[in-house]
Description:
By secondary structure, this protein is an alpha/beta fold. It contains eight helices and seven strands.
Amino acid sequence: xxxxxxxxxxxxxxxxxxxxxxxxxxxxxxxxxxxxxxxxxxxxxxxxxxxxxxxxxxxxxxxxxxxxxxxxxxxxxxxxxxxxxxxxxxxxxxxxxxxxxxxxxxxxxxxxxxxxxxxxxxxxxxxxxxxxxxxxxxxxxxxxxxxxxxxxxxxxxxxxxxxxxxxxxxxxxxxxxxxxxxxxxxxxxxxxxxxxxxxxx
Length: 201
């Protein structure tokens, strides 16, 4: 059994970093060493920023975005078209579409996709608030900007069925989003083209 070369505090830092997406044990060790070497420049400010984030970041009760205010900055922005809601799986997808700057609409974050194999059903997603918003906010179009995966398309069909009684247009992303692709990994130009070329669902 290999001996530990660092104290429990450093081991805990490495273990926590290793839980982040894209970081395995080796990458986490490298990141921890970098933070330790740059303690004044990085580690202190990062710890402060994380403390502030822990205390102030909340989930928007209207759309599911994360922000420091509720409703969030996007929901409060009067320059956005309140009659269009873009439905996304995660906040990362919302941020990806915002980077593309293809449309000044409002969003709705589902918090995932329907996945019976993983035990994720309709009650586990932010679906009922979407129907409430469509009914109360004079929405004329819902754009389904979900990933082109099996679970994403299953969710899109479910949302379409939920909204079928409403007198609105339901569209989905079109050209540029590959089957099996995830929004957060696509370039801005592809996302912008996809949202401009949306089609009826």
